[in-house]
Amino acid sequence: MDYIELLKRGLKKVPEKIDTKERFEMPRMRVQIAGSRTTMTNFSEVSAALRRDPKHMMKFMLKELATKGSLSGTRLEVQGNFSEDMVNRKMELYVKNYVACPECGKHDTKLIKERGFAFIKCEVCGARHTAAKV
């Protein structure tokens, strides 16, 4: 077989539609409401998936939801009733501000502190940007 025949045979085996789904998938926060308290049951799992300190995420969530709360094992319990949709919108805002690289948009970043300032350091493109204070 010559090169052209092999190329044609190989191209026939290539699928029409190639899945371009990004490997990062935003984890969804699971929420339970009991009385006047809302519990985010998989808070530690989400913070581990995002590779962020649970205390940093908690501080952001409490500020954004304008409430009080505490970490209890793998859960975050807050005062007030907050829908799962609202909590997940706040998590998307957290990812935009503290996880996604402003330069390339990838989520392979680290949050580092130097001389009192927080920086988002991208492990893909090497960019480094200041992160807003929580």
Describe this structure in words.
A four-stranded antiparallel sheet has the order 1-2-4-3, covered by helices on one side. It has a three-stranded antiparallel sheet with strand order 5-6-7, with no helix packed on it. The protein is of the alpha+beta class and 134 residues long. It has four helices and seven strands; from the N terminus they run H-E-E-H-H-E-E-H-E-E-E.
Itemize the secondary structure elements and their pairings:
Layout: H1 3-13, E1 31-34, E2 37-40, H2 43-50, H3 54-65, E3 69-72, E4 75-79, H4 84-98, E5 109-114, E6 117-122, E7 128-130
Antiparallel strand pairs: 1-2, 2-4, 3-4, 5-6, 6-7
Shape: elongated
Structural class: alpha+beta
Mean pLDDT, rounded to whole units?
89
Instruction: Give the tally of structural domains.
Output: 2
Biggest β-sheet: strands ordered side by side in the sheet: 1-2-4-3
Per DSSP, what share of the residues sits in E-state strands of 2 or more residues?
15-25%
Measure the end-to-end span. Answer: 64 Å
The topology string of helices and strands comes to HEEHHEEHEEE
Q: What is the count of β-strands?
A: 7
Query: DSSP helix count?
Result: 4
Features:
elongated, 34% helix, 134 residues, Alpha-Beta Plaits, 7 strands, 2 domains, alpha+beta, four-stranded antiparallel sheet
Describe this structure in a few short sentences.
The chain has 134 residues and is α+β, with helices and mostly antiparallel strands. The chain has helices at 3-13, 43-50, 54-65, 84-98; strands at residues 31-34, 37-40, 69-72, 75-79, 109-114, 117-122, 128-130.
